[in-house]
Amino acid sequence: MRKLPIQDAKNMTTVDLIEGLRNRDFSLLESAGCHRLRREMYVPGFLCRFTVNTAFRLSGVGKSKTTRSYRKVRRKLCKLLDKVTPAEINGNFPQTHDHALVFGFNHPSLGEIGRFVGVCMRDYGHRKHLFPVNLPWYEALMPIVGKLEELGIYITPIITPSAYEKIKAYASDEWLEQLDMARTGFSNHYMKLCTKFAEEGGIIWVAPSATRRRTVFNSADECSMKVACAPQTMSLLATALVKAKITDCDFVPLGIQPPTGFKPGLNLFKTYRISVGKAIPMSEASDLLKQRLPSGRGRRLDHEFLSRIAKQVTVLGSSDIIYPAS
């Protein structure tokens, strides 16, 4: 994959950058000298591509791409994921067909994403799903992006705080400045896509922490509302939907309990436990958005949503990941 000259990158819009990545015209990571980040994605990227390609092959989908054939692919992929990324579900996923859904979850590892794709195929095969994907993952998944979209899975790149810190260790000052601009551009593009998906009654999957971490809250002070939740992901998303005058949308908290001894990766063949919490309808989210925390900083929506995730985590028997022990 060719390297993109820095001057070309400076002259490209966010949409141009994403289109170039999607078409595999270049690699931003390779261009910025972040070869190590790409190498880290080789094995997990290969496993994901192999699983999706296998589902297509087993379904016999050829040139005749019909609704029935894609239904077969979804069933095959669901069966594969049930074996490779098993999950126990506590509660029921909402089945509202006229409402957009925002699923927010604690994000201890990469493993829950595979389990969620299984939910997409099993419970919501007829709907479109939007996942923000960290740039290294996005580049690793590009060979199958078309197939994912045929199954209703849409991904868009972001640069998470942890990825940005790694990039800073490798990129030159010039490229770091460019990737800093791309980071903002990707985030703005993601918010526009969220609005579009919500308008069309799609499903948006969000990790409010914006990165992988074991805890729901960053600290006990966050949990007790002494300080604002950081980042304020749910407030940003809800604000965008309010501005777009979207009323038919529910925010659904999901609690994740990974297997004992889990690692940050995919944790294949190990069972995750997922608990579905009480949804916050758009009307309630809009009201919570207007309310400030007692400290005056931060909005109640973020705290309320994280509290509902934490409640589901405790339902699963994991009280130690609500906030770090002092």
Overview of the structural elements:
By secondary structure, this protein is an alpha/beta fold. The chain has a single domain (6-321), classed as Glycerol-3-phosphate (1)-acyltransferase, CATH 3.40.1130. The chain has 15 helices and 8 strands. The mean pLDDT is 93. Strands 1, 2, 3, 4, 5, 6, 7 and 8 form an 8-stranded mixed sheet that branches. Helices cover 50% and strands 13% of the residues. The chain starts with 5 loop residues before the first helix and ends in an 11-residue tail after the last helix. It is globular, with a radius of gyration of 20 Å.
Fold blueprint:
Elements: H1 6-10, H2 14-22, H3 28-31, H4 35-40, H5 42-59, H6 67-84, E1 87-90, E2 100-105, H7 111-123, E3 129-134, H8 135-141, H9 145-150, E4 153-158, H10 161-170, H11 173-199, E5 203-206, H12 220-223, H13 233-243, E6 249-257, E7 272-276, E8 280-281, H14 282-290, H15 300-315
Parallel strand pairs: 1-7, 2-5, 2-6, 3-4, 3-5
Antiparallel strand pairs: 6-7, 6-8
Summarize this, please?
This protein has 326 residues and is of the alpha/beta class. The protein has helices spanning 6-10, 14-22, 28-31, 35-40, 42-59, 67-84, 111-123, 135-141, 145-150, 161-170, 173-199, 220-223, 233-243, 282-290, 300-315, and strands at 87-90, 100-105, 129-134, 153-158, 203-206, 249-257, 272-276, 280-281.
Core attributes:
alpha/beta; globular; Glycerol-3-phosphate (1)-acyltransferase; 326 residues; 8 strands; 8-stranded mixed beta sheet
Average predicted local confidence, pLDDT: 93
Count of helical segments?
Answer: 15
Beta fraction? 5-15%
Number of strands: 8
Q: Regarding quaternary structure, how should these chains be classified?
A: single chain
Helix content bin: 40-55%
* Proper CATH architecture: 3-Layer(aba) Sandwich
How far apart, in Å, are the first and last alpha carbons? Answer: 47 Å
CATH class: Alpha Beta
Shape: globular
Largest sheet: 8 strands, mixed
What is the CATH topology? Answer: Glycerol-3-phosphate (1)-acyltransferase
- Poorly predicted regions are none
Q: Which secondary-structure class do the elements indicate?
A: alpha/beta
Number of domains: 1
Rg, Cα atoms, Å: 20 Å
N-to-C series of helices and strands: HHHHHHEEHEHHEHHEHHEEEHH
